[in-house]
Amino acid sequence: MLIKLALNLIAHAITDVTIPEMVTTRTPLSKSILMLKDLLQFTGVLFCLFTAFLIHFRLNKNNSFSGHLLTALLFLIAFCNSFHLFIVLGTINYFPFLYKIQVPFLFLVFPLTYLYVRALLNGESSFRKTDMVHLIPFLLFTINYLPFYLMNLEDKSQLVLEVTKDFSKSYLDQEGLLPEWVNMVCRLLSPIVYLIMQWRLILSFFKNIQRPASKQFVLVKKWVYDLTTIQVVYTVLIVLLHLSNRLMINGFISKAHISETVLSLLVCISFLFISCYLLWNPRLLIGLPHLSFNNQDASYHCSIQDNESLFYELENYLNKTKCFLNPNLKVDTLSRAMDMPARRISQIISESSYNNFNDYINQMRITYAVKKIENNYLSTYSVEALSHTCGFNSKNAFYRAFKKAHNCTPGQYCTNYFNSPNNTNKP
Q1: 360-392: per-residue pLDDT in tens?
Q2: CA distance 330 to 49
Q3: Residue 379 burial by Cβ neighbours in a 10 Å radius (0-12, 13-18, 19+)
Q4: Which of these, 381, 384, 370, 383, lies nearest to 416 by C-alpha position?
Q5: Which of 7, 87, 319, 339 suits 390 as a labelling partner, its CA being 20 to 30 A distant?
Q6: At what angle do helices 65-88 and 258-280 cross, to 10 degrees?
Q7: Whole-angstrom distance, CA of residue 167 vs CA of residue 156
């Protein structure tokens, strides 16, 4: 389906004939903006899917509940946004039975975001019983559209064809038990309600908590504030876009008015920003945004002195056993070896000067590599051999970690070290 969507998008960009949104009334500038809008939205869908797959299959190694919610949220956002493209590019005509299937799921996006933020901040590991209430709008509008979903395929195909010719019919014609305006009003009110709840949750959490600002804590705080702010911008733009469409339908502004086109573009830009945020912030993605403690669980919350003592114990163990040289070392493996909970290890590392477990282990490997270089290791062995000796799976990963730590390659470090006038260990 995505391949067919991509082909339609390319055909639209080349021929400029497949877009059904009142083509004849639009100026060349508006048509160009609409093509850009569709391209941005398609890119956003791909980024959302890519990030969701990355988190689910590669990055959520601790199997965290908030990680699963984030994956589901990204899949849901991609799913809902792709249907708008299916309609405006005419792809839905190949799958008319799917028309309106995404509408009930739109009522899950903001509740799921709220539940994700709550799980992230409070360290929750499952849903609460009362969370069932968030499904009410989804179930209500699923029932609302049941007669339409069960409609004869031939009749539905004709209706879908008319919608692709005039997109305004998608929100004017009554296709459910309730008038379509009820759906639109609920879709605008739901985000507002959940954003208010989300802001209250975030502000209350960070106001009441008192703890040192570790790197991971600062990252998570920035992430939830940025996520909610982007959602606010997106919601405001959606409200303005629907208002513009209503004014256009009622004849107060012309169908070719630039405001509707610009608002559509801004909506797609804000969606793209949401979908790309984690990819643009790899430290967040690699560390999977999470707080490593439950604010309500006093028994789990460690004092600063306890964390420093545990970190010292962890570092001593790693230096003594040199287990960081194992390229397959995982936090679970270290947890069993030290008889320390994996979550505790992640906590004390994230509250130190390191971003996460992988960052900490890589720093230890680089420190070990530097000692090897200063002992003239590279005069006998290659950089690739050094990378494997230090526990890296590839030379490229070793180069990236080394440059991050020392702003130069291992070879450059070696040259600079042995050419230094203060060096007494020249070969």
Answers
A1: 899 999 999 999 999 989 888 999 999 999 999
A2: 26
A3: exposed
A4: 370
A5: 339
A6: 150
A7: 15
Show the tokens assigned to 148: 């339409």
Q: Binning pLDDT at 50, 70 and 90, where does residue 427 land?
A: low
Nearest to 401 by CA among 373, 365, 372, 377: 365
Cβ atoms of 172 and 249 within 8 Å: the answer is yes
Structure confidence by residue, pLDDT tens digits, 258-307: 666 676 777 778 878 877 887 777 666 655 565 654 444 444 444 555 66
pTM of the predicted structure, to 2 decimals? 0.67
Q: Tokens 């499904």 identify what position?
A: 135
Calpha distance 371→405 (Å, rounded): 14
| Count of beta carbons in the 10 Å neighbourhood of residue 109 | 20
Structure token pair of residue 150: 């069960």
Minimal CA–CA distance to 202: which of 185, 226, 181, 183? 226
Q: Are 382 and 409 in contact (CB under 8 A)?
A: no
